[in-house]
Design brief:
Number of strands: 15
Distance between the termini: 34 Å
Structural class: alpha/beta
CATH topology of the largest domain: Aspartate Aminotransferase, domain 2
Number of helices: 14
Radius of gyration: 21 Å
CATH architecture of the largest domain: 3-Layer(aba) Sandwich
CATH class of the largest domain: Alpha Beta
Shape: globular
Strand content: 15-25%
Bound molecules: pyridoxal-5'-phosphate
Largest sheet: 7 strands, mixed
Strand order of the largest sheet: 2-10-9-8-7-3-4
C-alpha cells in the first residue's frame, strides 16, 4: 500500500477520496510523461524534422500502451478522444449509414446515458430502440430478457460492463457470444469496470468497447476499442480527402491530444510495476494481469467492510449485490437511507473530509426506474485499490454519526 499510495501525489491530501467512480486520482507517472512531452516534444506532428518525428513516436507509444491495456490485437484498434461520451457519439455517427429504417438497436436501462443517447439518436434514421430491462429484485441484466427482445432485425446491443450505480460486473464474454450468435454486434461501456479488473477485448471478442482514462488513474482522456474489421467499415469523420482506410485517425478528426495520449501510457507502466512487485514475470501484459488480481483482492476487503456495515442497518437499501465477497461486485456502492436526503448526507460527510457523492450519476433512466430521481438519487461510495482499511473505518464512523442525527 505504501508503494501504491506513493504513486498518487493527490493522496497526500487530508481528504479520503471515495468518489473514484466520478474521477480517480492521477498517477505521478502520467503527470511526468505529460510534462516531458510538453518540455521536449511539443511541436506539430508530421514534420520531417527530428523533434516532430520523436513527437510522433511518443504518440504511437501512448497508443501501444493503451492497446496493451485493452489487450487489443493491434494499436490501430484504439481511438483516442476527450471523453467516453464523445467517443460513443462519434461511433454512432460513423456507423449511422450502416442502419436501415426498421433495424433495431437494444440499449439497457442500467447504462450511463453515454451509451444510450448516441443510439437513441438513430431513431431519426428510422431505427427502432428497445430497452433491455433489469430484474428489479436482483438488479441484474438477464439473458432471458434480452432473448425476448432480439429479432433478426437487431443490429447492435449496447450495454454496460459495470453500472456506475449498481457496481455489478456483467458477464461480457457470455453476453457477447449470445448476441453474436443472433447476428448482432455489441458496444460495451467499460468506464466503471476498467479501474477494477483487467480488460481483455480479444478474450471477450467484443466489437466496440469504451472507457475513460481519468477514472482509471490517468488524465482527462478516453479510449475506444474498435475491432479492426469493423473499423474498416466505419465512415470517416475527418476531412473528405482522408479515406476510410485512414485508421484510426478517421475517428480522431483534427489534431489528437498527443500529450495526454502519451501520458496515459504511464497507467500501464504503473500496472506493470505493481505486477512486478507481486512477483510476476513475463510480458508487460502478464504483469498487468497480476496487478489487477492484487487490485481485486484489496477492493474486496474494502467493499465487504462497507457492505457489512450497510447490511446491518435496517433503514438502508443497497442498490446492487449486497455481498462484498461476491466476485461480480466492484466497490462502487450506492444506497438510500429511509427518510434521509442523499444530498444532506454528503454535505455532512464533507465536514469529516470524506469525499463521496449523491445523485443519479447520469444513469437517469435507471434512477427513474428505481424511483429515486426526485429524491436526489442515492449516496454513492466508490472505492478503488488505493483506499485503505483505515479510510474505510473513518468513513463508517463518520457515516454512523451523520446518520444518527
Ligand atoms: C459508466 C459511465 N459511462 C460513461 C461515463 C461518461 O464518461 P466521460 O466523462 O468520459 O464521458 C461515465 C462517467 O461518469 C460513467 O460512469
Amino acid at each position: 500500500m505504501n508503494y501504491v499510495r506513493d504513486q498518487f501525489p493527490g493522496l497526500k491530501s487530508e481528504w479520503a477520496f471515495m468518489d473514484n467512480a466520478g474521477g480517480s486520482q492521477i498517477l505521478k507517472g502520467c503527470v511526468d510523461k505529460i510534462t516531458e512531452y510538453y518540455y521536449s516534444n511539443n511541436v506539430q506532428l508530421g514534420g520531417s524534422y527530428q523533434v516532430s518525428q520523436e513527437a510522433l513516436k511518443a504518440f504511437a507509444n501512448g497508443r501501444e500502451n493503451i492497446a496493451t491495456f485493452f489487450n487489443a490485437a493491434r494499436p490501430e484498434e484504439i481511438v483516442f478522444g476527450p471523453s467516453t461520451t464523445v467517443l460513443l457519439q462519434f461511433l454512432s455517427k460513423s456507423m449511422a449509414s450502416q442502419f436501415r429504417a426498421g433495424d433495431e438497436v437494444i440499449v439497457t436501462i442500467t447504462d450511463h446515458e453515454s451509451n444510450i443517447g448516441p443510439w437513441v439518436w438513430l431513431e431519426e434514421r428510422g431505427v427502432r430502440i428497445k430497452f433491455w430491462p433489469m430484474n428489479k429484485e436482483t438488479y441484474e441484466l438477464e439473458l432471458e430478457a434480452l432473448d425476448a427482445l432480439m429479432t433478426e432485425k437487431t443490429k447492435l446491443v449496447a450495454f454496460t460492463h459495470v453500472s456506475n450505480l449498481l457496481g455489478t460486473i456483467n458477464d461480457v464474454k457470455k453476453i457477447t457470444e449470445f448476441v453474436h450468435e443472433r447476428g448482432a454486434l455489441v458496444c460495451v461501456d467499460a468506464v466503471a469496470y476498467a479501474p477494477h479488473r483487467a480488460v481483455d477485448v480479444q478474450d471477450w471478442n467484443v466489437d466496440f468497447y469504451a472507457l475513460s482514462l481519468y477514472k482509471t488513474f490517468g488524465p482527462h482522456h478516453a479510449a475506444l476499442y474498435c475491432r479492426y474489421d469493423h473499423m474498416l467499415n466505419l465512415d470517416g469523420l475527418y476531412h473528405y480527402f482522408y479515406g476510410k482506410d485512414k485508421i484510426p485517425a478517421k475517428l480522431e478528426p483534427g489534431n489528437a491530444n498527443y500529450e495526454l495520449s502519451y501520458g496515459s501510457g504511464a497507467i500501464v507502466d504503473y500496472l506493470v510495476a505493481l505486477g512486478e512487485q507481486a512477483g510476476a514475470n513475463g510480458s508487460r501484459r502478464m504483469k498487468l494481469e497480476t496487478a489487477y488480481k492484487d487490485i481485486a483482492a484489496q477492493e474486496t476487503i474494502l467493499c465487504e467492510k462497507v457492505l457489512s456495515y450497510l447490511r446491518k442497518r435496517n433503514d438502508c437499501t443497497i442498490l446492487g449485490i449486497k455481498d462484498g465477497l461476491d466476485p461480480r461486485r466492484v466497490p462502487t456502492i450506492a444506497f438510500t437511507i429511509e427518510g434521509k436526503d442523499p444530498q444532506k448526507i454528503c454535505l455532512e460527510m464533507d465536514q469529516h473530509k470524506i469525499a463521496i457523492r449523491f445523485g443519479d450519476f447520469h444513469a437517469r433512466r435507471l434512477a427513474d426506474s428505481l424511483d429515486i430521481s426526485k429524491d436526489n438519487g442515492a449516496v454513492r461510495i466508490s472505492l478503488t485499490h488505493y483506499n485503505t482499511v483505515e479510510e474505510v473505518e473513518k468513513l463508517i464512523n463518520a457515516l454512523d454519526m451523520v446518520l444518527a442525527k
